[in-house]
Amino acid sequence: IGMFAISLVLSRKSDFGRIVSLILSLFWIWMGIVYHLWFFSAINKAAPVFAAFFVLQAVIFFIVGVLKHQLKFRFSLNFYGIVGGVFLLYALIVYPVFGYWLGHRYPAAPTFGLPCPTTIFTFGLLLWTNRRVPLYVLAIPLAWTFLGFWAAISLRMIEDLGLLMAGLIGSMVIIFRDTSIPQASANL
After folding, report:
1. CB 45 within 8 A of CB 86
2. How far apart are CA 85 and CA 173, in angstroms?
3. Phi/psi at 114 (nearest 5 deg)?
4. pLDDT in tens, 104-161
5. Cα–Cα distance for residue pair 161/122, rounded to 1 Å
6. How far apart (Å, rounded) are the C-alpha atoms in residues 80 and 124?
7. The pLDDT value given to residue 12
8. C-alpha 154, offset from chain centre
9. What is the pTM of this model?
10. Which residues lie across from 112 on neighbouring strands?
11. Which residues of 59-90 are buried (b: 16+ CB within 10 A; e: fewer)?
12. SS3 assignment, position 43
């Protein structure tokens, strides 16, 4: 599904912003309900709180991207496109390979579809938007960057260094890029 979202953005034949936003929404609701609420709550009492925030993020992507169509995705061969592409490649390829190399084997290893690699993927796609990203869209993924990174370090998930980098760099680059996008085009 992640590769499908990337292929839609790269196709350039039409604006698939609503579909890509729906995919992000589905990822975040999956992580909230299936991972945090169903799986993670067995080992962490805070998991239901995490689940609520992940479901909230799913609702935000649905409202902002699907209903309001405020997230339009288009790859450009520029700094933002390249950084976003690096995050996407890290989330889908480098993260699992690096984890395997570090001795994290399936099913004990986090894979795409779980919070840390999928948050990295989310920042990658948000760097491929060509309109302003409302700051509240970044709030929960950025907060998870710090929470997930702290937990990952305590669990020795070195591959989650990419999570911290994606959250910090991704947020700063998106905010910097968005200040250079004229306000009029952000409301179209």
Report:
1. no
2. 13
3. -100, 165
4. 667 666 677 678 899 999 999 999 998 889 999 999 999 999 988 887 777 677 777 8
5. 16
6. 9
7. 74
8. 22
9. 0.88
10. 114
11. ebbbebbbeeebbbbebeeeebbebbbbbbeb
12. coil
Tell me the pLDDT tens digit for each residue of 71-110. 999 999 999 999 999 999 999 998 888 777 777 667 666 6
Structure tokens at 151: 């937990």
Nearest to 37 by CA among 47, 29, 45: 47
Q: How far is CA 114 from CA 68, 111, 187, in A?
A: 27, 6, 33
Distance CA 47, CA 44 (A): 6
CA–CA separation, 104 and 84 (whole Å): 25
Check if the beta carbon of residue 103 is closer than 8 Å to that of residue 13: no
Token reading at 74 = 């288009």
DSSP state of 127: T
Q: What are 105's two structure tokens? A: 């084997």
